[in-house]
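Project outcomes to date are best conveyed with an example. Our students and postdoctoral researchers have been running inverse folding experiments weekly, and each run begins with a structure described purely in tokens. The record below, which covers 182 residues, was selected by the lab manager from last quarter's runs and is presented without edits.
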């Protein structure tokens, strides 16, 4: 069952963050889709899905990637989109330090360019090292970078706090990154 939940989470991330057309849907401006349409489209794509399974996925997910509307009729991804959506987030004042998990082989490019968003709309930062370490471990030998978030904010960079507790910003220039010793 756990493997099914992981597979379903990856499938939903693909559909709700990057490519809703694979199940014949499009996201509304806020990133929402109709649950019935999602279930129907998933079935046509060979993925068995129902409302109860969606609820389990959302309730069990430690990263709070998805939100189900109160009436259970719509669902959206909370962050990580590569397609344009308006999550309705207001700028927030970040804590003094935030953390970014990455892989050791990416450090040189981060030293040169900073932390860039790649194909996403935002760089994702976490409020704790453990979460950042988990993110970094998905990409190779993990490294956790400390980000001078408050100083960035004071210098005019905007931060947004997602519904799931992930901090978002457009980019992190290298001067705000505390790199580990080699």
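After processing, the design step wrote out the following sequence:
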């Amino acid at each position: 069952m756990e493997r099914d939940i992981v597979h379903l989470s990856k499938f939903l991330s693909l559909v709700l963050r990057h490519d809703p057309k694979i199940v014949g849907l499009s996201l509304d401006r806020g990133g929402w889709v109709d649950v019935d349409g999602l279930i129907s489209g998933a079935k046509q794509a060979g993925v068995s899905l129902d409302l109860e399974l969606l609820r389990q996925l959302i309730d069990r997910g430690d990263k709070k990637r998805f939100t189900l509307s109160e009436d259970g009729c719509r669902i959206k991804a909370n962050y990580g989109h590569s397609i344009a959506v308006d999550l309705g987030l207001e700028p927030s004042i970040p804590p003094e330090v935030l953390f970014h998990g990455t892989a050791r082989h990416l450090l040189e490019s981060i030293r040169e360019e900073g932390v860039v968003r790649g194909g996403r709309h935002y760089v994702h930062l976490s409020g704790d090292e453990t979460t950042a370490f988990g993110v970094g471990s998905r990409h190779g030998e993990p490294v956790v970078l400390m980000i001078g978030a408050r100083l960035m904010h004071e210098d005019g960079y905007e931060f947004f706090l997602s519904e799931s507790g992930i901090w978002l910003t457009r980019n992190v220039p290298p001067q705000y990154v505390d790199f580990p010793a080699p």
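The first strand starts at residue 33 and ends at 34. The first helix runs from residue 2 to 18. The training component of this project remains on track.
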